[in-house]
Design brief:
317 residues; mainly alpha; 17 helices; disordered N terminus
């Protein structure tokens, strides 16, 4: 299936750390590093324009901004594990339009069917998560910020409605999590970090309800990997804003990546690349190189896969 290209932006924290030390050099004798970081982040959080490094914390936790490609990679598996409810012909046509990346036509079809569905029914719920998915894909391709924002929040509304109507469907939880995370790019830094807790809960629920969906496991691993990568100063930033900041380990991330691979071997080159990176972070060099070799041997199926293989070729383990 087609998958849109995605990457996380990871600007360096070195300048921010140096600036912090320079501004606070006079008082470092009487303040611990954690106290300095907390003061710095609290000031940044309260400013009209938060410090770039605070925004970076939110970026790393905004998994939804990069998750749609992974979700599209095994959409068929998601559908195979979801209970059938809406009309089979509508499902077939909707899936064909999704596979062909005809998202505007798909959105129109699903909205028309939703208008005809009985309010509060399982059919309405099934149509709602599919509509949320289609609108998210349309938002990904949108260049105008205001239009993209409107699409994301409209999609989030439909995903939330799907959760209310069909909470037993893993896809409803997955796309709600993706869209909630994506909405953080418009809702602000603090909201993004706060939403990250809910995002993980729904990825976990999606994985439990759709045990054959490799992407739900991958997305859980991605969430853990990004949280585990938070630097010391970023961790202090989150701790200054929230009593219990998000936590995860590379071991947790690896467990999810490997679980996804067991569900559907080779389903997604990015999963293999992240597996290699997680293994490397855990000091398991030989296994990391083996996982990287598998990634490099993968056949790309989309421009996003091509970008992943290019990244893998440059990776030094």
């Amino acid at each position: 299936m087609a998958a849109s290209c995605f990457r996380l932006s990871r600007p360096s924290l070195l300048l921010s750390a140096r600036s912090l030390c320079a501004r606070r050099a006079v008082s470092t004798v009487s303040h611990s590093p954690s106290q300095l970081a907390a003061q710095f982040w609290v000031r940044s959080a309260g400013a009209a324009a938060p410090h770039p490094s605070l925004k970076l914390v939110a970026q790393k936790l905004r998994v939804g901004a990069i998750a749609a490609a992974a979700a599209a990679a095994t959409a068929a598996a998601t559908l195979a594990t979801a209970p059938a409810s809406c009309d089979a012909r509508t499902e077939a046509k909707a899936d064909a339009l999704f596979d062909a990346a005809k998202y505007s036509e798909l959105t129109a079809l699903l909205q028309a069917e939703l208008n005809k569905a009985k309010p509060g029914s399982a059919d309405a719920g099934e149509l709602s998560w599919r509509l949320a998915r289609a609108m998210k894909k349309s938002a990904d391709a949108e260049k105008t910020k205001d239009t993209k924002k409107a699409l994301v929040f409209d999609a989030l509304k439909h995903a939330k409605r799907a959760l209310e109507l069909v909470p037993e469907i893993g896809a409803a939880h997955k796309w709600y999590a993706i869209l909630l995370s994506e909405s953080g790019s418009f809702a602000g830094t603090s909201a993004s970090i706060k939403n990250s807790f809910v995002v993980r809960e729904h990825f976990e629920r999606a994985a439990a309800l759709s045990p054959k969906d490799a992407t739900s496991r991958h997305l859980l691993g991605l969430w853990c990997f990004e949280v585990a990568k938070l630097s010391w100063i970023e961790q202090k930033a989150a701790a200054a804003l929230f009593a219990t900041p998000p936590t995860a380990t590379f071991a947790e991330a690896l467990d999810h990546f490997e679980h996804a691979e067991r569900i559907e071997p080779g389903f997604y080159p990015k999963n293999l690349l992240l597996t290699a990176q997680a293994l490397s972070r855990l000091g398991r060099a030989d296994e990391a190189k083996a996982a990287l070799a598998k990634c490099l041997a993968a056949t790309p199926k989309s421009p996003e896969d091509e970008a992943t293989l290019e990244e893998a070729r440059k990776l030094k383990l």
